[in-house]
Design goal:
Layout: H1 2-14, H2 21-29, H3 39-49, H4 52-56, H5 60-63, H6 71-84, H7 98-109, E1 115-122, E2 128-136, H8 146-156, E3 160-166, H9 176-191, E4 195-203, E5 206-209, H10 215-236
Parallel strand pairs: 3-4
Antiparallel strand pairs: 1-2, 1-3, 4-5
């Protein structure tokens, strides 16, 4: 079955038809997985690293975080980046502009039947560099170990961090839990020198932005007040 799929991809490429990023990656991985379907791994890699360039220039330790990618496959991809990669245009999505971010979030969350939380790492130009997706079978919350997010921020040191999640029930107005998560994520970002740029909520009503609504300023003020109070108590001890 896999052999037939591989022949079809090669034939498609030979005919000069458009070949999608995940199909190109599938073909690149044929040598790494001689007898396995490379489609799931290709999609998982692109979900995390977003572009072929980011995949083959990522650290081996990052690549092996992807299910199905062992050390040998990670080394193989890393080798491609180190010795055979030729520079090409960087087509990563631009997320600094809210219009671009809003459209990206709508594309990511439209039609989802589970509640998802996504964390986007962006560089100083606002280009997406990493995407981490978490989901829950619950209709009203996603339980995420914040230590996992903190570890990734500490390791990759992104310029900025954006959070986005969807509401399956109710509108897109933030809940108390959403505010609490924003405070925690702001604190994590501050601890590792990253900028917490926005927290967006998607629903059928549209996309709510903590930044555009100036709610992010309130979250920062709350965190600053909590730290000031904590410092006062510390000084009294």
């Amino acid at each position: 079955m896999h052999n037939g799929h591989r022949k079809r991809l090669y034939a498609k490429y030979k005919r000069g038809e458009a070949v999608y990023d995940h199909e190109i990656l599938e073909m690149v991985l044929f040598n790494a997985y001689p007898r396995h379907n490379t489609n799931p791994v290709a999609h998982a890699l692109l979900e995390r690293f977003w572009s072929f360039k980011e995949i083959i220039t990522a650290d081996v330790s990052e690549l092996t975080e992807i299910e199905g990618v062992g050390e040998q496959v990670a080394l193989y991809l890393n080798l491609l980046g180190k010795y055979f990669y030729s520079k090409s245009a960087d087509n990563a999505p631009m997320l600094f502009n809210f219009a671009g971010l809003e459209q990206f979030i709508k594309t990511r969350f439209c039609g989802k039947d589970k509640e998802y939380l996504e964390i986007y790492f962006v560089d100083a130009k606002g280009k997406l560099r990493r995407l981490y997706s978490y989901f829950s079978n619950s209709a009203d919350h996603v339980a995420v170990d914040e230590r996992n997010i903190a570890a990734r921020i500490a390791k990759l040191k992104p310029y900025g961090v954006i959070a986005a999640h969807n509401h399956l029930i109710g509108g897109n107005s933030p809940s108390e839990c959403d505010d609490d998560f924003s405070v925690h994520l702001l604190n994590i970002c501050a601890s590792f020198g990253a900028k917490f740029l926005d927290h967006c909520i998607y629903s059928d009503e549209g996309v709510y932005s903590y930044f555009m609504s100036e709610r992010l300023r309130e979250v920062r003020a709350t965190l600053a007040a909590d730290r000031e109070l904590q410092q006062k108590w510390t000084n009294l001890k």
